[in-house]
Amino acid sequence: MSKDKEEKEHKKEESECEKLRKEIKEKDEKIKDMTDTLKRLQAEFENYCKRTEKENNDFRRYVKAELIKKLLPTLDSFELALKNHQDKEKFMKGIEMIYTQLFQTLEDEGLRKIESTGKKFDPYFHEVLMTECCKDKRDEEVTEEMQKGYMLNEKVLRYAKVKINNKETREEVKQNENTD
């Protein structure tokens, strides 16, 4: 190989090396920029999470404070009733008024009773504690509400505990078991 040819090859290789170094440098800068952007985004996201958590906690405290503020008149009524406990009739009337006042406050917040007695048993709203056999009632009709159930807006807070009618008596159940 001639010297000129070698020099040309060498210069060509150097030129390619320089081009590759330049590309590597550009890619390194791009990686650095992207890493910085990623770190900023990550920091912003962490700050966002902390901020929303604080806002949620503040909101919960605010909601609690508002509910307690609405319940204060009921508390005042209890204090007044307890001061006047000597007159039993007035005391009982006061307690009834307090119950009405408390329930109205809770209703205003979205609480409502689950209607049960006379309705068909619904496992989404009722919990059966007992059954009985009444010929004049429909099968699975709620015959007695043993504990009221409540909903807050559309969510069940407590299922109504009920007694339902079961037209099949124990004897009929035993007969059905014996025939199987």
Descriptive keywords:
180 residues; alpha+beta; Hemagglutinin Ectodomain, Chain B; three-stranded mixed β-sheet; 62% helix
Description:
The chain has two domains: 1-109, Hemagglutinin Ectodomain, Chain B; 112-180, Nucleotide Exchange Factor Grpe, Chain A, domain 2, CATH 2.30.22. The protein is an alpha+beta fold and 180 residues long. The model has no long low-confidence stretch (mean pLDDT 88). The chain has helices spanning 3-83, 88-108, 170-179; strands at residues 111-114, 126-132, 142-147, 149-152, 155-158, 160-165. Helix 1 packs antiparallel against helix 2 (88-108). The strands form two sheets. A three-stranded antiparallel sheet has the order 1-4-5. The N and C termini lie far apart (105 Å).
List the helices and strands and how they pair.
Elements: H1 3-83, H2 88-108, E1 111-114, E2 126-132, E3 142-147, E4 149-152, E5 155-158, E6 160-165, H3 170-179
Parallel strand pairs: 2-6
Antiparallel strand pairs: 1-4, 3-6, 4-5
Helix pairs in contact: 1-2
Largest sheet: 3 strands, antiparallel
The percent of residues in helical segments reads: 55-70%
Q: Give the integer mean of the pLDDT values.
A: 88
Shape descriptor reads: elongated
Radius of gyration: 38 Å
Head-to-tail CA distance between termini: 105 Å
| CATH architecture tag of the largest domain | Alpha-Beta Complex
Unreliable spans are none
Strands across the major sheet, in which order? 1-4-5
Helix/strand structural class: alpha+beta
The CATH class assignment of the largest domain is Alpha Beta
> H/E element string?
HHEEEEEEH
Q: Which fold name fills CATH's third level, the topology of the largest domain?
A: Hemagglutinin Ectodomain, Chain B
- Beta-strand share of residues: 15-25%
Task: Please report the total strand number as a whole number.
Answer: 6
What's the number of domains?
Answer: 2
Instruction: Give me the number of helical elements.
Output: 3
